Amino acid sequence: MKYLQAIGYSEASWKTFTTGLREFFCWLEKQKILSLEKVSESDIENFYSYQQERPNNMTGGTLSESRITIHMYVIKLLFCYLEDTEQLQINPMSNLDYTHSYKRTRENLLSLADIEQLYKVCDTVKQRAILGIIYGCGLRRQEAAKLNVRDIHFKSGLLYVRQGKGGRKRTVPLNTTVLKDLKEYYYNERSGELNGNDADSIEAFMINKHGRRMRGRTYTLEVKKLIKAAGLNTQITLHHFRHAIATHLLESGMKTGHVKDFLGHQSIETTQTYLHLTTTQMKKTTSYGTETIPD
Asked: Would you call 54 a catalytic residue per the annotation?
């Protein structure tokens, strides 16, 4: 912990990093790897794959990309420390990089032109619906995975997040384009995809290729396909879409307090971190980002 303090990390970061290290050590023990000197590059890659697949015992689904990236980042810090203090001759993470997204997580990597390009490369209404959920509605990965049919009211144009981060609830207004895409997916594509007879599949709004609830991992894969087709930065994650909509709404003139409610932030200070990202003159607006989604 003295090492973390020396390179500028706060006590709050120490606690977050401790969780990642604890999980890594438990995983190593299960693999019968009892010495850090025996950890290889392939072991690190296997742990990364395990993190992507293992269930989230707190919220259900799988771990968020940001959580996985933080875990991998602290493991890299650990091996850098051991290498710097000459306790380790070979650093198994020297050729691996899982830190890029973590370092840039507050940057606005997606411009309005990027969003428009993503919509242009969509081949299906389902893809447009996915963009509407993660960008137009600003839902977190787990919020998107938990989205049920009953959470979207087409008549009133509202989406309800019933269990957001920290168990908080919120109501998200749907602009015309997002509402149209979600409605078209529900009435024209979803019923043909539904294959599971279990209650969870029937309740789920977004359905995967197997006919069951779409999980966070599938959202990630679907968005990665669009990002590649659009020729955008492959380091973009689902969470960058939340950062993008936050910045774009602030740029459009929406008050910080309204953006806070839209995104479900616990404190306005979190929302204010996006203020320095805005690059255009703020203009008056009377709706939740009606002009930010291309038709």
From this structure: no
pLDDT tens digits, one per residue of 15-53? 667 888 899 999 999 999 999 999 999 899 899 888 888
Task: Tell me, yes or no, whether 39 and 174 share the same domain.
Answer: no
Please, which residues bridge with residue 158 across strands?
153, 173
* Active-site hit among 71, 126, 128, 140: 140
Identify whether 242 is a catalytic site residue.
yes
Residues 257 and 104 sit within 8 Å (Cβ to Cβ): no
Residue 37 sits in a domain whose CATH number is 1.10.150.130
pTM metric for this prediction: 0.61
Residue 265 annotated as catalytic: yes
Q: Name the catalytic one among 242, 243, 248, 260.
A: 242
User: 261: helix, coil or strand?
Assistant: helix
CA count, 13 A, side-chain hemisphere, 139: 32
Expressed as residue numbers, the domain containing 20 is 2-103
Q: Are residues 134 and 34 in the same domain?
A: no
Last residue of a domain, one of 59, 75, 103: 103
165 is catalytic: yes
Query: Can 22 be counted among the known catalytic residues?
Result: no
